[in-house]
Amino acid sequence: MQGSAKLKSRLEAIDLGRGVALAAMAVYHFAWDLEFFGYAAPGMIAQTGWKLFARSIATSFLFLVGVSLWLAHRHGLRLKPFVRRLAMVIAAAAAISLVTWIVLPGGFIFFGILHQIALASVLGLLFLRLPALLTLAVAALVVAMPHFARHEFFNHPALWWVGLSTVNPHSNDYVPLFPWFAAVLAGIGAASMADAAGLFSRMAGHSLAAWTRPFQFAGRHSLAVYLLHQPLLIAGLWLFSQASPAAELPREAQFTRACAAQCQETHGAGFCNHYCACVLEELAAEGRFDEIYAGTPGLETSLRLQEIVSACTFEAELAAPGEGQAGEDGE
User: Cα separation of 87 and 41, whole Å?
Assistant: First the structure.
């Protein structure tokens, strides 16, 4: 940094932004944990509002990655700190993949936000010397790609990280290259334009209010906070559940929850909500729910279940068009 920027090695507003994003992420993860432990209604975080909240958090993080990348290397690549930071992110991403593969094998995180940050940090270097408007144009193209470039070629698990498969894989945190790299490019382009306008120089000489200090601290240590906050939340809820366990869900709610979890591996939330409600309603109306719930359906019920599934699939497709097997973009 130049001028007054030399007096500070960091911009407080950037750290504050990161800290606020971390706080929002903790709120979302706490909601996820409440549902997981049975304290919140099944399917709560699959609702549109929560999904938009999660996407806004991921977008803000990746945007700030682009801004920080530009600030750190706009005068030339600082190789040693870049490699050190990249190695830390890669190690953290690998650890999350390993832990979730052991604990949650049905939805383990094979390419989450840390994986995206690692890859985007490398690819982002290619855009640091390009005109800001060109970088923003590429960002728009990256956002649009999943809408017209999906192909069965990308359905192989080794290519899921690209984000152009015709069926979205199931994962508790799926942040593929397309469209999410666009947020990093937007951060790079915006930072370039902001610096040209002298915004960062003005920010460098400005100290924020004292109440922002905890958020700034979290923002300065964002990787550590990201890695630690969820284990701490889970541990706290687990301890709470030992003293005050969540009430056992009714059988119908358990059935709906299991149905939705399986359905959302290949379909959107809107489709699954309609589909599972339809199946439950039909089974209950015909007095077949007990057989299905117990896992001991007779031949007649099994055949009838196939008919109900087909009919409810058709109804759900009418009620939630566009949420077929392509699903929605991952989080």
Answer: 39
